## 1
Amino acid sequence: MAYHKPVPLFSTSRPVVLPAFQHAIRPLQWLALLLLCGLGSQSLWASATSSAIEVPPAVWQSLAKNQIPRDAVSISVLELPSTAGGNAREILDWRAKQSMNPASTIKLLTTLAALDLLGPQYRWNTNLYTDGQIKNGLLKGNLYLRGSGDPKLVPEELEQMMKNLRALGIQRIDGNLIFDRSAYSPEVMEHTTIDGESMRAYNVPPDPLLYAFRTLSFQLSQTNNQNGIAISYTPALAYFKINNRLRTSKQNCDDWQRKMQFELIKHVGSESKNSDQLSAQFSGELPSACRNITYNVVALDANTFLTLGFAAAWELAGGSWVKQPQGKNGEVPLFARPLLEFQGGPLIHAVNDVNKFSNNVMARQVFLTLSLERLGKPASIAASDRVMQAWLKQRGLDFPELVLENGSGLSRNEAISARHLNDLLITARQLPSGDLFVQSLPLAGSDGTMKNRLIKQLRQFLHLKTKPEARIKTGSLTEVRTISGYVISQSGKTYAVSSFINHPNAFRGMDAHDQLLTWLLTGGPEPKQAR
């Protein structure tokens, strides 16, 4: 989940619709989309019976206490059928068809469509080429990296890639690194934000060669060394060092970032030392009460980050450089020959990270992969939106209010209704990858963004052999709090639940959502139906 500085959001207004598609579809692409659309299936819940009841008083009381008006909220609860082929039953409808900002719960649409269209074992390729020759262990020539948007090109993957490169008989490299990012349309890689926080990890833009989320992660801990503070970092970067000028102070750990200063300094090489160096300088104070702190920052441009990361990984694998490599953009020339095709991890691993930990840039790259695979490169938002609309039609879903800007929820324009998000959850249960999708959602009191939610409420069920559970995707922006997922009640009934709060006081709305989930866990709607 991402947290942002306040920007205006009016919950009662219709979100701004995206501009008209910027890229025309070629005839063969239209044919592919028409064939895709022609496989439509009938909705299993179109004739759902309705016995909707009122919103639980505890939810209204929580909203009132936190000064959130009822017309800033939408809630949809559907009871899922116990047998295949049955219809869902509407339990609760409060403004459920109202178009709202869903924040990160829109990731459910992105990940489900990807699992269904690409398959859980889909893998991204990162290919290496050269315009040089290998002789006596020396590769003399440039290395070209062509990416396809692997969202989990992390140090472990790069380490394996370097081992594979070494296995080709290469020991030293005399050349530079050329990065081919032609898989994406240029505008999707622009580093624009909705809150101006360009150095925050949640705002990293998509990149066909995204390495380690382009994020430096520093670990600061109290030690017994000279200044009492140790600093380490990941991922490993070549030509990079830490300049630790931090002092300890006897204060509590509140607002520790305001007491510390971070600066990135470039040191240009001299004639005697022909390599440039970067140093991360930490100064100011770190309160002694802060025992272990993680400081994540997006401080380097994409090319520099990947160049230094690649160089370090190559050296850690036992390779060396004739001279410090330089990294720049470019496309693989026709005369270049392939060296290595590296496959990343499967899509299902990325889906788990996206849904459990609400990783924005991973969601955006999964969304772009839809058009990259279905319509070819360059992938774009407009092309992925077309693929998504065709998939929805194929699955018998009609969401006229749907607005997609990047597929991650990091947007003031994205919109959907709570009822339609629930319809999506029902559809998921009918798909081949449905079980994997459900398992990817955060489990309340256990993992992901729900790890610390509903812990006290769930304790009352510890004695039960079959325990109730809530698998809920959360969403958070300034003025937006949302939930969407499945609840299995103590009686064994399964509910799809989605609820959105769009209001300046939305940050206070977590309790109202927890009250709604608690009501479902304890079978709140069931006694009334039994009478």
## 2
Amino acid sequence: MDLQKAIETENLNEVIRILVENPPCIDDKNEDGVPLSLYAAKFGNFPIVKYIVEYSRASMNTVDGENRTILHYAAMSGNVELNRYLVEKVGMSITAGDKNLITPYQIAFEKGYQELLTYFEERVGAAYEEMYHNPIRTGMFPDPSIVRVGEDYYMVNSSFIFFPCIPVSHSRDLIHWEIIGHAITNPEWAHLDELEGGRGYWAPDISYDNGTFYITATYRLNDTGTVYRRQIVVSSDKPEGPYSEPAYIEEDGIDPSIFHEDGRHYMLLNRGARIFELSSDCKKQISEAGLLFYGDQKRAPEGPHLLKKDGYYYLFLAEGGTGPGHRITVARSRELMGNYEPCPYNPIMRQTDEKAGIQRCGHGKPVCTQNGEWYMVYLCGRMIGEGYSILGRETALDPVTWTADGWPVVNNLKGPSVLQKKPDLPAEEESTGKQSRILKGSFESGIPRDFVTPRQPEEDGVRCLGGHLILKGSKAPLASVDARNILVRRQTAFCFTAEASLIVPELAEGQEAGITCYYDENTWVCFYISYSEGTYFLQVKEHIGTEDICHVKKEISYPVGKKYLLGVQTEYLSRRFYYKVPDENVSAVSGEETVTSLSNVYYLCDEGIRMGKRFTGAMAGMYGYAGEAPLFIEFYDFEFKEQ
């Protein structure tokens, strides 16, 4: 009998005999690649697991290919005694996430093990339903900045070349967020026309002082000329806006933030943290910039934020670059202008487990709740395949505690959490600001706020009429920075289905109407109806760098005036493109037909290719290509369903 068989038959004596005679075999794996030390816990046999822990060579930091620990497997068994032992004596974490961010707590919850759930609740201090999952904002919500006004919380994130620019979101509980407006909604103020993907509006900050909300951001230009970066400031007495026309501050740097104190206003910029004073309306620079502190790690110090508390000025920085070395550090001074002392616990947030599901954590800003609790919002990223962050950089949240010597640390220096106890704040209604599993894209009430366009659309390019979306075909193709009227929303899950219904217009030679999975002008895939030489076709086309890859054309009978549904089903890097010709007399799934499938759409992410600035995330939406002849496409809806 081998060790696996002894474990499966729960034969303790055989397990002991085999491990005494052949100690290294505890490191063997079963046919699914699961280490036998973990596999044993799945059967819930406490004596066997206890022997393996205390007498075998097994290491308790062993994980399987999905980064699951021994406690994940013990939770599958439901054995409370075994789980208690692993938690209390071995020190395994109930809230540790695997690559898909599944925790032992979630496994017990989904299996309905009530006794085990009761124990986990006692240990964690909250029922599973009272926990929240990171990231709190999935999809492209990078570089978060937060401010509290009364009992309301407001957040801004980078928008790059997408319009409207810089989303402003609202929450009452720090978990559920809803976009309520944008910092720049006037197309004449956006100035995105010629900017390449990944440029535009970087790392905004939102602050509040004396009845006014201020948003500042870096306006990143193309690498032409001599000016690459400018800072903008807008203001409003309402968090949702409208905001004032951007004022430009000609100080080079990135990641501005504004610090208000006693009626005076200061802007901070990298490298490290440089500071200068602003005018009373925050629209002009009125002093020279000077360095406060360069940073603790001293690699790519950016994202500076100032907080004053208990007689100290605390300076938070993002360091280490936006890859795996990303981190948050803090320094403090009794005087605003320094000198600043680095925190002995730095970095106060960093992911050190290279196998974990949440990576590249940094660029954080703290906030204090009305109850005196502290939290930090920060960016993070999740990888699939060979390290592809398809969803872009997302927003996470973790508690901040203050040490006895007055330093802030995030999540007790454990790195990013996967599952965390909810803040002690009024719970939001589940439908308010929550990224639900089905996101209806109805146009009955106009264009939903989570839709954006790469660069500002033409004046009549995107409009609603009679409850439908009328999209004007672009004169330029998707591969051009001159392409317009592409209406997309963030991809918020690795597995999703997106569907758009349209009335097929009469097309001229080479024109297109359809849907797209879009990253920027350099990388996208589209599924569309086209016309060529008297025939209409359904076709899928990939664009990777400078290469177009056209897939099989499917000829369709004369479809003009008919309602077609075009869909894409995504599972991680694979995408299946299908269509339906809806009929009121049949079910919604009748007539679905696959046109083609792609197995490795790796390129819709930062890491997909090396071309330009790649800081955004995958999108999905609708488009039309007109060329020189006019084209207007009527879309009924766009549904995004997370799987």
